[in-house]
Amino acid sequence: MEALVDEFSHTFPAARGVQSGRPCYVAMCPLRLVPKIFIFDGQEVPPELRAQRVLNRTRIPDIVSYLVDNPSDYTLSGITASVDGQVSFEPSTDTGLGQNLGLLSIPMDAKILINDGQHRREAIVQAIEQNPELGYDNVPVLFFIDDGLKRSQQMFADLNKHAVRPSDSISTLYDHRDALSELARNVAKEVKVFSRLTEMERSSISNRSSKLFTLSAIKNASKAMLMKGKNDPITQDEQDLAIEFWNEVAVNMRDWQLALEKKVATCDLREQYVHAHGVMLQAMGQIGADLLFKPKAQWSKILIGLQEIDWSRANGDWEGRAMHHGRISKARSSVVLTGNYIKQQLSVPLTPTEQEYEESFKK
């Protein structure tokens, strides 16, 4: 529905409702009007006098790319705004749906302050500059009548208090645009151990879980193995190679096979062994990046050596590498040093960068 702009007000077709005893209105706003209507109080205003956080501009390019790259297949959630001014609502008498559908008029001199959606607003501005056709699309807006700064600040706190960022695993499971997510899903499906023992929704595993891996860990490890960036394409051959590599790794991990056959509890493996944690999976991904340049006959033979490694957390060699003070570490240095130790056991030479980590560790 198109917004009608006259000499004195912005007028939107809207639905009227009530929240906590206060009137509110839901309208569809053309994207091209968003930068003209909605105000964001910027960085020059002290935090105590603002109703929002300062823009994190590093977030905006990703949203802009998402809109511009998917003009016919994007989903944009609504904006919540407070109107500092007197609004009027004229019910439509011919709808047969009561008095809650009509036209919302907001004076042009009223301030419309965003309570939630400031990053979307800025991304919309930049996206329309790149693709003006987006300006004819709409974004839903929930309008509240402003009761002053204190109320607006409380609205911001309330709107964000219960917001929970989805886990990396479930984002990977549901993202059908991202090639790395597609890779992770296929690896988790086609590698037998992963297909039975992967936590698909959460990025951490509880002590009582029957799972051994997370989908996000498989994604990150496979990304390292194929040396892929965020938006790099992945060929079918590369996907097949990843599946082949992880199947070969799994064949040589006896404890993984025992867990698959339900002959050992996964919680016992997590408690007692390094190979039941993401740091090992990530390290193996990086090792795979070096091995897969060789013919399969060579790298598959090298991976047989995984059977001889002492993966027990009681093995003091893991301290300072996969573990710090007895606790598993996910730090970048831990991944590299864990990979270094595995490479040494497999008689695989270290790269110059890995050698630097090793020398620093030994000091």
UniProtKB/TrEMBL annotation:
Species annotation: Marinobacter guineae
Cross-referenced NCBIfam families: DGQHR, DNA_S_dndB
Protein's name according to its UniProt entry: DNA sulfur modification protein DndB
